[in-house]
Amino acid sequence: xxHHSFTNGKVLxxxxxxxxxxxxxxxxxxxxxxxxxxxxxxTHTASAFPSETRVQVSTVMSGHPPASRLxxxxxxxxxxxxPALGFDGPMDTSDDTRMRAAEQHYGRLFGAAHxxxxxxxxxxRYAAVTTGKIGNARLLAGRAAExxxxxxxxxxxxxxxxxxxxxxxTARFGPCxxxxxxxxxxxxxxTRALLDHMIPVHDPDLAVLWLNEPDLSYxxxxxxxxxxxxxxxxxxxxxxxxxxxxxxxxxxxxxxLLTMSDHGHITVEGQIDVKAELAKAGLRIGSAIGPDTDYAxxxxxxxxxxxxxxxxxxxxxxxxxxxxxxxxxxxFTKDRHIASGADALGALPMxxxxxxHPRAADLAFTLRTRAADWTDPDGNxxxxxxxxxxxxxxxxxxxxxxxxPGELTHLLAFGGDGISAGLYETPSGNVDVxxxxxxxxxxxxxxxxxxxxxxxxxxxxxxxxxxxxERLSAGTANGYAQTLQLAAVLDxxxxxxxxxxxxxxxxxx
Length: 509
Hints:
By secondary structure, the protein is α/β, with parallel strands linked by helices. The chain has helices at about 30-35, 55-60, 95-105, 115-120, 135-140, 145, 165-175, 185-200, 215-220, 225-250, 275-280, 310-320, 335-340, 405-410, 435-440; strands at about 10-15, 40, 45, 80, 90, 125-130, 150-155, 205-210, 255-260, 265-270, 285, 295-300, 300-305, 330-335, 350, 365, 370-375, 380-390, 400, 410-415, 420-425, 430, 465-475, 480-490, 495-505.
């Protein structure tokens, strides 16, 4: 791979949380659509598993999935259960008290080097503005507070870093509007804070704007709803302001512009109470391992289950129960369980989806998905439906966390000086954003990052990464079957498993 040097480079990353790439049309998002036609767009790009937001924040900011052969960031979901922590249930990554306790237990909660640390060590400035939840802001910040880097959260002083000076921002721009469906006011406020305060005042080398739309409206109003259309228009107007600034002054200052979403969405067609269903089957299951509980579940469309002492007999019974249902989707377990025979019970190894971290539960699963279209009462449709164990999400609402292409595939494109415009089909992912940002800043790759710089889009690059594909399958005698396709990218002698697509996980009657 050719070595590239971007002198005095700067990068602005704009994240549209949950945006499905197929929704970026000339009618719905004209400004973003126009930019995609002038930059380098990666068309086969995937979220880390599980495709939940705070996993993706951690992946973008570290260049790692939850687990990798090198390290892994160890954020196993928006919430995750680790028996070693001794909690009475899963730890939500927006729960500051439990996150601090976990930090003390682990020694380091965020297991990989964070971009905030890497940039500070290189003498570069980092800044961010986020409209996401508290956990989003904490994970986006990393060590920014102690390093004097400004990260501004709409949730106020207690969540923003001191350097962001939340009070000064609100004194200038007024208080952030209340959250709503669609969240157009918050989107506009955060964009103004970025362009009129964060960039001119702090002069960052790397700046991030993380918008929580269209994710919020997709979840609670649906992918095809009028609120989703309104929020896409508002997000596009925000991007139009950013693009105008970039063309007027940002580009001349050395900024490359990277636009992305962290995941997509599919539509909920029904709800299942997994904990209740497993209890009906006779499994002693609860929120935490205890004297009368063999299984602890973190429920959801994408969930996981810890087993008392990791006993294989209990894992086997769990797999036999799940694969005998018509609502269970993909199943993954630890290598030691695979070695004991879990593959014959329908499970695939967690290691192959970069999830085999010491904090991982014994079983990771998602509920059933289908490639069918969801059509709303007005006749609008979107591809991909799923069952859910998320009572707050309505039927017809959007969801993500699994491996269906509609939720796994995300938007990724960047442009500016030294970037060759065009469509790039090389498998890529959120794991590659951090390494690419470092390259655009003129910094060497971090030696432990699992992702790679997407250098095939750099001007003058003639070598293309080599790609190989592998297909994994598992099934059972009672008719359960799942198939997974993995893509491995060979780049400068290094192998990256940064993209995978689930083809199906289902019970055949």
